[in-house]
Each structure stands twice: as C-alpha cells, then as structure tokens.
Amino acid sequence: MVQIYSDRVLQADSSFIKDILSLTEVEDIISFAGGLPNPISFPMKEFQESINRVLQNSGDKVFQYSGTQGYLPLRQWVADRYKKRFGMDVTADDILITTGSQQGLDLMGKALVNKGDKVAVESPCYLAAIQTFALFEPEFLPISLEDDGLNLEELEATLKNNDVKLLYTVPNFQNPTGLTYSKEKREAIFEIIKKTNTVLIEDDPYGELRFEGESLPYIAGGKSENSVLFGSFSKTLSPGMRIGYLCTKSKELMGHLIGAKQSSDLHTNVLAQYAIYDYLTNNDYEAHISKITALYKQQCDAMIAAMEKYLPAHVTFTKPEGGMFLWADLGEGISSVEVFKRATEKKVAFVPGDPFYTNIKGAGTLRLNYTNSDPETIVEGIKRLASVL
Amino acid sequence: MVQIYSDRVLQADSSFIKDILSLTEVEDIISFAGGLPNPISFPMKEFQESINRVLQNSGDKVFQYSGTQGYLPLRQWVADRYKKRFGMDVTADDILITTGSQQGLDLMGKALVNKGDKVAVESPCYLAAIQTFALFEPEFLPISLEDDGLNLEELEATLKNNDVKLLYTVPNFQNPTGLTYSKEKREAIFEIIKKTNTVLIEDDPYGELRFEGESLPYIAGGKSENSVLFGSFSKTLSPGMRIGYLCTKSKELMGHLIGAKQSSDLHTNVLAQYAIYDYLTNNDYEAHISKITALYKQQCDAMIAAMEKYLPAHVTFTKPEGGMFLWADLGEGISSVEVFKRATEKKVAFVPGDPFYTNIKGAGTLRLNYTNSDPETIVEGIKRLASVL
C-alpha cells in the first residue's frame, strides 16, 4: 500500500498518551492526571463585562481580520509587565500574541528546526513540547533536571559537543516536576549558553503562580538575542480563550515567527485579545492572582501532607513553590505504568513518567496535579494511591 | 556566521507580498487589494446576544481547556449542513474545527507533506496556500486553471507522471480568479483522481456567497476517503473569530489531523465556537447570507460595468457568480507589477498576479476585490486604474 502520510506524523506515536488520558476520564475517578486550572481562576463576571464593553466600543474591529502579531495595546501591556516585574528592556514590537503558548512551540519548530537538527530538552520534559518538536524530526538531547535546574556539566558538554539549535526549559515550577531553577543556576546557564548560537526557550506558563519564595529573573529573557520567552493567560484567566504570547529581542527571529504564524492561522482570535486587555486594565489582576495562589498553596500543602502521611518511605517527591504539579519517584525497579494500571482500578489517576522522557521507558516517576481537586479529595486520592504501592 | 533558522523559513521570501501590502495601506488609497469581507456580514448585535447567552448558560466550560476536535454541537451542525445542502453522508466525527480554515492548510501540510513531495496546485493559486505549503518544502506542480476548472489533460498527465501527494483546489469562486468549476469538470476530475492516491483538498471559504447560478456538488467531498473539504465562517459571520472547519471521511487522516492540531494550538477558542453555534441555532442564517450576497452582487456588477466602460479593450476579465474577487488580464507583454507602481501613485491598489503563481514572474494578470468598497468608490477606482494602463 502506498503511504500517503508524512514521516513526521507516522513517527509520532501518541497512542500511549491517548490511552492513558482516556483512562483518566472514567467517571468518579479522582484524577491527578490533568493539567486543568481550577475554575476559581476564571473571572467570569468581570470577563463578561469586558466582552460587552469591547463589543460596544470596538464595533466591527473585533469581527474583522486583524494583524498577525496581535493587538498592539495587549502587546504593550505584556511588555510593560515584563518591565515592571523584571526590569526587562522590551517593547510591544518584541511581543507576538500566540494562540495559546502551545502555538509558540510549533512556531519555534517551524522557524528553527530542520530534520535532524539537535534540540536539547530537560529530562524529564513537558510532554507536549516533546510531541510538538518531534513533528520537526529533530534529534533530542536530554539534559538531567536537578532540584535547582539543569545539570551544568551535562549542559556544557552537550552544547560543546553538538551543534544545538534549541534548548527548551521551563524555569519556574517546571512541568512535570514542579521544580524551579535557582538564581545561581540561572546565572551559570546564561554564562554557558551565551558563548553558543543555541536559542534558549524559557517557557513560563506558571510563573505568576508562585505561592512561596521570591520571583527570580529569567535566564536570558530580555537580555540575549538568542532567547525567547513564552507566557500565557491560560493559567491566570482562561485556557479556553487560547491567548499566549512570546517575547524575543531578535528582530530577525521575530520576523520569521510572524511569517510562521501567518501561515498557521493568520492571527489569534481578536475578541479574546481585546477582552483580555480590557479585563487587565479594568480589574485588579494582582488580587485575582493572589486568590489563585492562595488556593493552590492550600491544595499543594494538602497533597504533600497526605503523601508524607500515607505513602511508603521509599517514595520521594518534589515540594513546589508554585505552579500546578509535583513529581514523585516510586524508587528503583518500580514501573509507574504498572502502578498506573492498579491505581485506575482503585479510581485514582496520574500521568506515569515515561512520556516526559525522550530516552527512558519503564520509569518509576509520575506527575501529580493538585490544582483541580479540593483538599479532601486530594487526601482520599493519595490514600488510594498508597493502597496500590 | 552560523545559520540558526530553518531552511523552510529561509526559502520563504514573502518580502514582495509584504511590500505590496504595505503600499496598499496608504491613507486615502482605493484598495481592491485586500480580501476583507464587508462589515455587513458581521451580525454584531445578534452575536453579542449569543455570547451573553453562552456566558450565562455554559458557565466555566468556555473558559476551561476543551477537546482538540472542537465543540460537538458545532461539528454536528456543520455535518448536518453538508447533508442538507449536498446530501453528503458525513457525521460530526468527520468534522474538525480549525482556527480559521487557514489552519487547515498547515495541518494538511503537517499530516501529508515530506520535503520534496509533490503538491499540485491551480495556476493561478490562492497565495496563502502556496506560502503555507512552501514551509513543508514540496515540489509544486502547477496545473492551468481554465474558465470551467482545471485543464483535464494537464491534470491527467501530472497525476500519471508523478507521485502527487496533494491536489489543492478552490472549486467555487476561486481565489484569485473568481472562477467556478463546471459540473462536468467536477465529475471528470473525480474520475481522474479516484484512480490515484492523491489527496484532494477542496477549499471552499466562499461557497455560501453565490449570487448567480446554482450550487454545484463538490468534486469528491463526502464521497472519497482521499478527500478533504475546508469550510469557514469567516466570510459569512466573522473572520476575527477564526472559526473554520474541515471534513474528511478518512478516520486515519482525521486522527493525524487531530494530532497535528493538538501540537499546533491544543484546540480552537471555545467561546467563539459556542457563540457561533448559538448564533446559528437562534437566527436565520440563510437570510443573513442573502443580505451579504445581494450586496456583493451589486458591488461585483458595479465593478464589471466600470471595467467594461473604462478599461481598454485588450483587458479581459472574469465574471464571477459569487465570492469576493475577479481577475483581469492586461494582455501580452504588460507586467502588472509595473502597472501596480503607477496605480498606487494614482491612489488605487490591487494585487499583481505574480505571487499567485509558483512558476511565473512578470505576469500581466491581477486580482481585484469588490466586497469592501461601495459602487461609487469602485467606479472611481476603476477610472484611476484605467488612467495608468
């Protein structure tokens, strides 16, 4: 039979992940598998007011075709916030509005990655980043993620011995681990990459969701030309609106990314861009974020307390300072895929570690989400998990 | 210097088109260059009602993450409409909601086209399709578009002598020419392609905008597995919402397209999907479309009358039965790019033919849009165009 499909989709076997996700959707299961924000983060009433204001005031503009780079006032707001939070020297021209920050991954692949190019990733790595980059048929180079960030020796050797196009990181409350890079490691990584041509992605969908400790400056964002930041309103306002953004000071890269976006979807939904901008300028965004982080801290604390109380001592896990996930290690010789099967029978679900690695099968690690269950449910779910270990 | 960008973006030189489009944005120019629907097609009041109803009734669903394939009732509506208009045997499972039908081009490239694969296109062809497919580095095979559709001898020889992955067509009111495939040619093309493994795209953003003659069945849409239809609400409700769709009866292809979409943007804006569905079920869509087509007929008639009256006899042009564009040929030895420069000095703009071809430079053809200017402005613009010929 003639093969009509492209190599890129044929080698992307996502059936394992689909099977897992379908199991987590069984009724009355306690699911720590998803990555859904708690509905508390949706400012529904205020957003409805913003939408009506926009429809009233902006007339046919939100219905018509619009510019590919995105709504200028929203881009200006994003640039101003980078300036305010981190003192970064960026302008609205350095910002591209994306259809969710997921689209940023696709655009970066399009703009940079030829078949066979080398893409360095954290190990473990956000699984949708692996899937998206995989469509550009690169060679993945995994670099171990430690408690305070990438292993520096591995990073240095990898960048020295290879022509690495892209280094993908999630420096704050990483997906899947919940880990955050230390200030020292950020500085050390900057020193290592600035001697190379490798483009660094700092994907930061969770950065606003810090419930402990202090915000840290980006590794290279706003400083280096070979640097791209991703951000999102999905975790603080609404994922359904699909409004993310990326930031780079490289004019040339921005030009290619805008071209790639034009081919991908012309531009992002206009009403959502206007409405989010209206919301941000007419409401107390900081207070809204504080409400979310207070809840997530409580949920995270509940999960950690339950894990300490109910799980066997050989199980270790991360203690996030923010974000939505924590990461457990069941210990030597235990496959979390096997545990997953028993767990779903007991009506509790998580994501086994395997799909977060580019080169490991049968891992003993697993990802737990705490943002979408109340503390009581979290305790019950951890008890169920304990019962199958 | 080390080249960090991908081959695909480096070979995509869109500066010519950017330069042209920037010239058409000069103030007080009469622009026939764009492809904007007339604001009359935006049901702003009714849409605002739909949005408020959705926000009231669907609570947090429209704010949360959602399924990649799209909102089921909207997919069902699209399938039902195909059934009603063309008797097609399709279900909601055969429909994928896309972020504008532009995204369909990207997803089809992702799912099918390896570097060097052969992609057959109409000559002339919708320029954004050329640009989008070009990012997958195919070999383009242009097939002449005649008044009643593709040249059958060229099509047959092209498909016979080459392993063609994809054949891209716009059978109704084609962009850029405004031409519509005859019933006979549709049937003949179906007979030719059904013997091959070539996947046929029928891109149909304008199909609802018929102001003369009768709707014709698709070439292969709803009949063949190796067939994909694209549709859109951009030309009948709002391009700013970015809601398009595609339809294929191939389960395997649909699986790959959903996977590709998940990597591209996870899913399309949820509020827009719900609101469009609510609009469609609570308003008279046919009456709304009739209002648009009545206006476009009047504008098209005005342009044709002015062209007959003011342009020299050696200029020939198409007479569309619907859609948004017509196509003029200035005659042997005249470059429309040269005419374009003189035209913009006289404050009238169009798109020269060159970017619509994969293999022709210095063409004498040009595209004129009539949907976004009133008849008086159209007459004045054609007079200005006549003055530089």
UniProtKB/TrEMBL annotation, chains A, B:
Annotated keywords: Aminotransferase, Pyridoxal phosphate, Transferase
Domain of life per record: Bacteria
UniProt domain Aminotransferase class I/classII large: residue ranges: 50-385
One Pfam family it belongs to: Aminotran_1_2
Names of the cofactor(s): pyridoxal 5'-phosphate
Family the entry assigns: Belongs to the class-I pyridoxal-phosphate-dependent aminotransferase family.
The protein's assembly and partners: Homodimer.
Listed name of the protein: Class I/II aminotransferase
Biological process according to GO: alpha-amino acid metabolic process
GO molecular-function term, one example from the UniProt record: pyridoxal phosphate binding
Gene3D superfamilies: Aspartate Aminotransferase, domain 1 (3.90.1150.10), Type I PLP-dependent aspartate aminotransferase-like (Major domain) (3.40.640.10)
Keyword Transferase belongs to the record: yes
